[in-house]
Amino acid sequence: MLRWLSGAMVGVLSLIAAGSSAVGQDLRESINKGTVGIISGGIGGTYIRIATDLASVLDNGEDLRVLPIMGKGSVQNIDDILYLKGIDIGIVQSDVFAFVKKSNRHPTIDSRIQYITKLYNEEFHLLVGEGIKSIEDLAGKKVNFGVEGSGTYMTASIVFEKLNVDAQPVSFDQGLAVEKIKSGEIAGLVYVAGKPAQLFKDIQAANGIRLMSVPLTDAILDTYLPSRFSNDDYPQLVAEGEQIKTLAVGAVMAVYNWPQGHPRRQKTINFIDKFFSRFAEFQSPPRHRKWQEVSLTAVVPGWNRYQPAERWLKENIMTVSDAKGTKAAFDVFLASQAPALSKQLSDEASKEELFKLFMRWQAEQEQ
């Protein structure tokens, strides 16, 4: 009798285990079916805020879950999109694509990584310490370029080379770099991020520490857009009425080009449909204000648009409002013009002509 009971018990336990395994497998498939992994940036940057906004708006508990993941910079993000398990989409700087192709790091990248949309412009922050009066004063001095291989490191290297300033690059965590500026161990730091960046939230212009203007030479403007910082961006670092000139580089939502019929491709198509359809929700508080600069139809030179995104835009073009993005772009346009031209804004009769010039300029940026 005991043997029979023991055998029956084993049978029951086996059935329970089999059922539990089946339930676990179903749950695993359900959780993974609609999950899209997005590699972004560090905790103090704008990328992770953008990825978090995507999750907050688009997660619906049914067929789409957005999983924001902290990354280590644009170059590493390209590697992660290509090879890291669970990553479908990444946020990178637009100039990283040309850098990767030039270095022959990934020879077939044109067909493997494409873009969903251009996001916004990221500003080049140059924070300096006591005794630095111009960017030329950084020659021969230690300047934090961020983690080697990151987008900031790459852009900092390009900009300092174009300006013929031979600084001594060092690589520290940006938070630590701020402390090293305060102690005088390094002369400055570069940080490429969408303004206002969390890193600078609690930094005050004191003891010579300040944001420094970057000369917008022809060599710089061949590659980058003009931008600026104001008191609205950094109240503790920029005085009221002050304008600090700088440059900007585009941020891009990149995606792995999954082949036709692949289940991961269907997940990205689902993400694009939800993201584009609900885009207006990203341009209102409490979402990051950089969303107001985004135009879904903007073209990224040197990149190929992901075919599902291209198809959605063709089928639904002009249904997405990006008026706020147009206004933000108009502000960038004004910063790129001579002061005498900008002053014409006070003349109502000139506004129409200025706006026509702006529209022409904007079209050129999107070619």
What is this structure's SSE topology?
Blueprint: H1 2-33, E1 35-39, H2 46-58, E2 65-69, H3 74-83, E3 89-93, H4 95-102, H5 109-112, E4 113-128, E5 142-144, H6 151-162, E6 168-170, H7 174-183, E7 188-193, E8 210-211, H8 218-221, E9 225-229, E10 244-256, H9 263-277, H10 307-316, H11 323-335, H12 339-342, H13 348-365
Parallel strand pairs: 1-2, 1-3, 5-6, 5-7
Antiparallel strand pairs: 3-10, 4-7, 4-8, 4-10, 9-10
How would you explain this protein's 3D organization?
With 367 residues, the protein is α/β, with parallel strands linked by helices. It folds into four domains: 1-32; 33-119 and 253-325, D-Maltodextrin-Binding Protein, domain 2 (3-Layer(aba) Sandwich); 122-250, D-Maltodextrin-Binding Protein, domain 2, CATH 3.40.190; 337-367, no CATH class. Helix content is 42%, strand content 17%. The protein has 13 helices and ten strands. The protein has helices spanning 2-33, 46-58, 74-83, 95-102, 109-112, 151-162, 174-183, 218-221, 263-277, 307-316, 323-335, 339-342, 348-365, and strands spanning 35-39, 65-69, 89-93, 113-128, 142-144, 168-170, 188-193, 210-211, 225-229, 244-256. Strands 1, 2, 3, 4, 5, 6, 7, 8, 9 and 10 form a ten-stranded mixed β-sheet that branches. Strand 5 (142-144), helix 6 and strand 6 form a beta-alpha-beta unit. Helix 9 runs parallel beside helix 10 (307-316). It is globular, with a radius of gyration of 24 Å. The relative contact order is 0.13. Residues 318-324 have low confidence and may be disordered.
